[in-house]
């Protein structure tokens, strides 16, 4: 079983059986494999971990993003732990990505010029080297559904966008549609829990037997 040093800050992952706490194992990174998580579980809530799970590499290269906990294994001896505040624990950066669209909106008059819209999407900043394979992350941000805002550019009103608690003003577009903006208020530190689910479906194809 891989491990990490005593005193390493851990982060919580909510599972079907309750909270488990994870940290990155001591590095085993190489040109074909990256670091992996080890997650621990306090099954009876007595302040000691009784089992551990090797949980794979960060999902999509995003730090603190555990996709599958892995097989539960009992520890030889329970390991005590101390609860700290969220502010003291490990964290991952949010990132904002802007996209520009110029198109005609439904119901617009034929002679009206198309409008330009700027959409800012929020997500988690991915690792620069997911999986230790020596290449840049693509894309550099893992977007999260619902963390987005769109504004139609126009001189008649402030072009304000609100994402992740941050407020931005879109000032205009530069060369190659580069977005010029100013930060009115930055995003505060916050705790987000992202739930993932897998949906399986079965498709039946009718077979016709000639009579």
Secondary structure layout:
Layout: E1 11-15, E2 18-24, E3 37-41, E4 48-54, E5 72-80, E6 94-103, E7 115-125, E8 141-152, E9 160-163, E10 166-173, E11 179-185
Antiparallel strand pairs: 1-2, 2-3, 3-4, 4-5, 6-7, 7-8, 9-10, 10-11
Structural class: mainly beta
Mean pLDDT: 79
Radius of gyration: 23 Å
Helical percent range?
Answer: under 10%
Count of discrete alpha- or pi-helical segments spanning 4 or more residues: 0
Distance between the termini: 61 Å
How are helices and strands ordered from N to C? Answer: EEEEEEEEEEE
Contiguous uncertain segments of 5+ residues: 129-138
What is the number of beta strands?
11
Structure description:
Strand 1 (11-15) and strand 2 form a beta hairpin. The protein has strands at residues 11-15, 18-24, 37-41, 48-54, 72-80, 94-103, 115-125, 141-152, 160-163, 166-173, 179-185. The protein is flat. Helices cover 0% and strands 40% of the residues. It is mainly β and 211 residues long. The chain has a five-stranded antiparallel sheet with strand order 1-2-3-4-5, with no helix packed on it. A three-stranded antiparallel sheet has the order 6-7-8, with no helix packed on it. The protein has two domains: 8-89 and 192-196, no CATH class; 94-185, no CATH class. 17% of the residues are buried. Residues 129-138 have low confidence and may be disordered.
